Each structure stands twice: as C-alpha cells, then as structure tokens.
Amino acid sequence: MTSFSHAADGADGSGPVVKLRRVEKLYRAGDVEVRAVRGVTLDVARGDFVAIMGASGSGKSSLMNILGCLDRPTSGEYILDGTSVAGEDGRRLAVLRSSKLGFVFQSFNLLSRTSAVENVELPMLYAAKLVAVAERRRRATEALELVGLRARIHHLPSQLSGGQQQRVAIARALVNRPQILLADEPTGNLDSRTSVEIMGLFQELNDSGITVIMVTHEPDVAAYCKRVLVMRDGMAISDTRNEERRSAAAELAGRGRVAREACLS
Ligand code: ADP
Ligand code: MG
Q1: Where does the chain show beta strands of DSSP type E?
Q2: Measuring CA to CA, which of 20, 64, 81, 197 is 20 to 30 A from 45?
Q3: Residues 200 and 146 sit within 8 Å (Cβ to Cβ)
Q4: CA of 234, closest atom in ligand 1
Q5: In angstroms, what is the span from residue 201 Cα to ligand 1's centroid?
Q6: How many A from CA of 36 to the centre of ligand 1?
C-alpha cells in the first residue's frame, strides 16, 4: 500500500479538498480481473496543482475517474470537500460532480455543430439549480472572456485552432465555478508552444484559488505543476513538490521579447 498525506491545510484552513483512503479499483472482464488502482491514499490541499504521471496502463485514468465521481472505488474511501462519496446515490453524485468539479479532456470533447458559447452553456443545463437562459449566456460569455476568447464566442469548434478549442473546453469546465479542475492529458493533442499557453491558463486559474489535478505523461508539462505524483501498477510510487516550478507566463513573455529583439537587430 502506498500512502502520501501532505498534511498542509488549504488556504482557508479547512483541510484537504480531496481525501483518498486505501482506494482500490477492480475491473472484471469475463474471468480476468484487473487491479487498476491498488490502495491509494492521498490528500490534496485546496489550491494545490497536482500532476499525475506514469506509464500507460498504470491506473491514472482510473484514478481520475474516481476523483471525478465518474466511477466509484471498489473499496476504500473518497471524501470530496468533506462529503463521503460512497454514501451518495447516483443523483446526488451527479449534483456533487456538477457543483464541485470541472473536467477537461485530451480530445476537447466539444459538440461540433454547436458554437463556443453554446458548448460552454451546456453544464448549466445539468446544474442542480436552474439557470435562466439570459444568465446562462452571460456566464458562458464571461467564462470565455476569462480564457481569452471573447471575440470567438459564436465560432464553431472547426473554426478554432486546437489551443482555442481547449480554451473553450476549459471555459466549459469553469462555468459552474468548480473548486477542482480535473484534466486528463489536456495538452496531449497540442504542439509545445500551445501547451505552454494552456499551462499558463491553468497556472492563472490555480493562482485564483482553483485546485488543479491533471494527468500528463510529459515531464515538461508536469514541471508547471506544484506537485508530481507518479503511478505504477495502480500504486502511487512517488509524490514530490516542484521546488523550482516553471512559470508559463514568464516563459511566454520571454519568448515575445526574444522575438521582438530578433526583429530589431
Ligand atoms: P492509464 O490511464 O494510466 O493508461 P488506466 O487507468 O486507463 O491507465 O488503466 C489501468 C488498467 O486498468 C489497465 O490495465 C487497463 O487495461 C485496465 N482498465 C482500464 N479501464 C478498464 C475497464 N473499463 N475494464 C477493464 N479493464 C480496464
Ligand atoms: Mg489514461
């Protein structure tokens, strides 16, 4: 069993926003049983920014699905912001998910015949509290503004670059004002410059107080996170703090300066 508990309390002092205790996930396919997650114990403090790394098949997505309340542990305990997930029925789990969590995926998962702003409005249709049409539009526009896409709100996904599509997906993840953003390989389909821009956006959101947990297999991307958890064979085998983490904003500003200087010389 692996056990990592960063005891540090969150910014508001009320303890970890995520608590996993001896979490196991077993999949059964016919006679074959796969232990995808094996006894993971983990605390994530409010405001933390965690990268989950590990080889393909090490259990990263299974763990993310549990963290995202998309799946339940076979055994063990998950306490999300003080609520034990095991005790919740499907409907209450959906409410917990839509009020506390935002999801970002590698392949963006936008509806292709639907404009950016309508894509961002979608999670409000499933929110526990009914949001009026005009208010949905206002909040979706605000979220798109936050990710730098105010001028593109009526574009279809096909009219946007990969990085812009991922920004729409991040706006959609933010629109119900979640405490935690969960992202499974969010830069996996992006070139390196766009990846840095997206990491810059995640760093900004994290600075504003949102807890971010993201899967990545790229050490370059993990270097922007505050903490790196490595999985192997369903277990968390290491958990370290990035003492010298990279700042995407500083790097992007630096590249701009280098480019300007090159033009002037
Ligand atoms: P990663 O995201 O690190 O690549 P996964 O969590 O997707 O790893 O998978 C961990 C293990 O669980 C793998 O051996 C995978 O084949 C298995 N697995 C994942 N999902 C299922 C499923 N729905 N049914 C059966 N086995 C699964
Ligand atoms: Mg995966």
Answers
A1: 2-4, 18-29, 32-44, 49-53, 75-80, 83-84, 101-105, 180-184, 211-215, 227-232, 235-241
A2: 197
A3: no
A4: 10
A5: 29
A6: 6
* Total-model pTM: 0.91
Nearest ligand to residue 40 Cα:
1
pLDDT in tens, 109-149: 999 999 999 999 999 987 777 899 999 999 999 999 999 99
Question: Rounded to an integer, what distance in angstroms lies between the CA atom of residue 173 and that of residue 170?
Answer: 5
Helices in 68-191 by DSSP H: which ranges? 90-100, 116-125, 133-146, 162-174
| Closest ligand to Cα 234 | 1
Neighbouring residues of 158: CB distance < 8 A, sequence distance ≥ 6 = 112
CATH architecture of 46-58+89-264: 3-Layer(aba) Sandwich (3.40)
Q: Whose CA is nearest to atom 22 of ligand 1?
A: 27
Where do the structural domains in the chain lie, given as residue ranges?
Answer: 46-58+89-264
Cα separations in angstroms, 54 against 64, 109, 116, 232: 13, 23, 33, 6
CA of 60 to the centre of ligand 2 (A): 6
Choose the residue to mutate in 40, 61, 106, 233 for probing ligand 1, maximizing ligand atoms within 8 Å of C-beta.
61
What's the 58 CA to ligand 1 centre distance in angstroms? 8
Residues with CB under 5 A from ligand 2 (ion): 61
Over the stretch 24-72, which tens digit does the pLDDT of each residue have? 999 998 999 999 999 999 999 999 999 999 999 999 999 999 999 999 9
Q: How far is it, in rounded angstroms, from Cα 41 to Cα 2?
A: 6
Ligand 1, CB within 6 Å, residue ranges: 27, 29, 34, 36, 54, 56-62
